[in-house]
């Protein structure tokens, strides 16, 4: 703790006659118990050392100087670890180390940095005027004091401060002995004891020294102080320390321990009871026994050779094996006992992170060595090494043919296509002349060469692997494929295609906790089986697991069989479309878990009612039942939209409309269809009031309103719909704006879909063109997106991106001609002019002809829900670069905003056989991306996720399912 005081803390009549200390040279005892181990000159040796402390968690020493610079040293040899600048002008007043980093206090700011030197947070406020000391009151609370009439209570978790007014003349020292009391020492000699739990009011306040306080320390119930006494108009340094018992401050007072020289800094030894260090400014250090007053003359004294500079700071390690001192000359001294050459700073220190060493290949003189095996350091972008040859020297070209002698051409006689000429004898047999190649010959394209192969080989991490885990024998191949310590899932049956999606659900903490906590009495409950599988993955310790119980229950669900999600045990000739299969499985499992949770909650309520009203008859509960294969199922899908790429439940009726629009129907058929639509509307209206939310719907549900408007009579109908997964709706080639848009515009158009389709109108009593528009009501915490990739156009969209072309209307020159149907036109992408549709100018269409759009999944999404139900979606990085965040705060409060981070991507690898893999984002202390391929798990980078994985290693459909999480 550094000794900080200014002239304003001394009496006005004593400034001119102040005697700072008494310097006397003491011969060092040759039998001293402690000696110097290391001495270093701190960075920028022109500045004095103003703060020094031992790290409580690692073998580090942190040193701050009066120039605002902080340096750390590792181990007893004091090897330099990190160095960084905290403030340009102010000195470092105090340093405190926590598990999450270190907090550095200067005169007017508090800096939070990690141990590698990266700053995390800088706190400044108008209440920080002349700060001096900092103290850790709890795991999340810090106390800061200075030459001001207030203490600052700082919350580490929220990075906020609160003010505690104090009547004393500032607080220069903050110390605690491990109890509930903290000692606040003022520069004028006043000490106040405050309760850490409520430090607003002081428990005890007394005058320890008449003139000034230099330092204090507390251990248990004992407190030691040193300072200056007032002698007339002068302040004289006291050559003793005062010992206080905080339990009997009023009765026994204090007693004195005399020293050979006036002490300036004090510090208790943490691991030894009743032992303390007292250091004078000239460098004399005495080891004191506080508990035994009779042994005051048997003090162990040793000298710190400061070369005439005054010692300013001191600290003791938590193990009490090492002491560190700093002086005004910028030197740092490490002391330890004579018999301990390798002192430990902490009894249980964790390992310190160091940079990976650069390991160069070794080659002996007798070995063959290639210079190309030596790695070269990186250079700036656009520059090249001087020894690199141009690209034209690496082209593969054929040898030039031997030129024909002109004499042969003169004497040649042609017989049909064959020419004959005598040998002129100008060259020997098999002699080939040297032909000099010029640069023009090298740059000339060769038509005989084969076209380069653009398809890169698929790495082994993405290919289908036939690996089995054996408990009795060593698994060397498996250990090479998975060195992350994360558990994999075996692929032993054909239905194991869902393993990547199971890993995605397992790495979602809210969903994982919900499934693990679920229990019910149903025999084949997928929620129970998934929760059991997740618990087994948690307790496996990194060993592979099997999903046989879950897959066995999955095969018994009739809805899964009806949807074609269950594959046969034996292979068939038909080619399985894994792209559509995994997306259907994603929608199915979310809906299945949703209804199983609701069914369990419903049964629990019934059992609770029966338990409370045991004497009353059982109330009749209205349920929706349906028959399948002659049996009654105990739950039905009525609330949520299930396995339909359409926008809402009302789209089911539109499917019937599409089926009947080109056929002739009689009045009976139309009447039956109308009754069918009315039944659907009644069921949806009932489900609107009876709808219940489960943990799944709270996480994944996208609530929106479907607005249908008849283009002939303008009748509007509004229905609510809820979906758990957003299916991307790709536009046809006729809709050039949608077809040539990127991923962000595609997601926006899919969440708030607009389209025109024939549908039944009750007012018109026939099928009429209907404009359908989706209005988003609520954004989910987890946004699940099924990216399609089934048709050839969708595959091309993901494999190569899209290129905007000139619209058909501009090519034909008919964009100005009005449509004959006007407002009643139901043709999507009509090339004629409509009154309610804006026409694109030829200039804009010509500009879009050269504009390219690559489809890349962004790492973060920013979605703003507007008051009219529409959304504005953008990449968060682009938003932070191009727009000012203050503009968004000034917008109307009717808009809500959500930020999503990409957490998982499912890929389909076009190989033989095809394979499904998953990219999963795991955030523990740091964020890491892992590639899950059944039992093979490898760590990948974000660049491979966003670029190399989807495009360089896969030929065809790639992003089949993407999940964004807030």
UniProtKB/TrEMBL annotation:
<dbReference type="InterPro" id="IPR048841">
    <property type="entry name" value="PAN2_N"/>
</dbReference>
<dbReference type="InterPro" id="IPR015943">
    <property type="entry name" value="WD40/YVTN_repeat-like_dom_sf"/>
</dbReference>
<dbReference type="Pfam" id="PF13423">
    <property type="entry name" value="UCH_1"/>
</dbReference>
<dbReference type="Pfam" id="PF20770">
    <property type="entry name" value="PAN2_N"/>
</dbReference>
<dbReference type="InterPro" id="IPR038765">
    <property type="entry name" value="Papain-like_cys_pep_sf"/>
</dbReference>
<feature type="region of interest" description="Disordered">
    <location>
        <begin position="832"/>
        <end position="853"/>
    </location>
</feature>
<dbReference type="GO" id="GO:0004535">
    <property type="term" value="F:poly(A)-specific ribonuclease activity"/>
</dbReference>
<feature type="compositionally biased region" description="Polar residues">
    <location>
        <begin position="838"/>
        <end position="853"/>
    </location>
</feature>
<dbReference type="InterPro" id="IPR028881">
    <property type="entry name" value="PAN2_UCH_dom"/>
</dbReference>
<dbReference type="InterPro" id="IPR028889">
    <property type="entry name" value="USP"/>
</dbReference>
<dbReference type="InterPro" id="IPR036322">
    <property type="entry name" value="WD40_repeat_dom_sf"/>
</dbReference>
<dbReference type="InterPro" id="IPR050785">
    <property type="entry name" value="PAN2-PAN3_catalytic_subunit"/>
</dbReference>
<protein>
    <recommendedName>
        <fullName>USP domain-containing protein</fullName>
    </recommendedName>
</protein>
<dbReference type="GO" id="GO:0031251">
    <property type="term" value="C:PAN complex"/>
</dbReference>
<dbReference type="GO" id="GO:0000289">
    <property type="term" value="P:nuclear-transcribed mRNA poly(A) tail shortening"/>
</dbReference>
<feature type="domain" description="USP">
    <location>
        <begin position="487"/>
        <end position="966"/>
    </location>
</feature>
<dbReference type="GO" id="GO:0000932">
    <property type="term" value="C:P-body"/>
</dbReference>
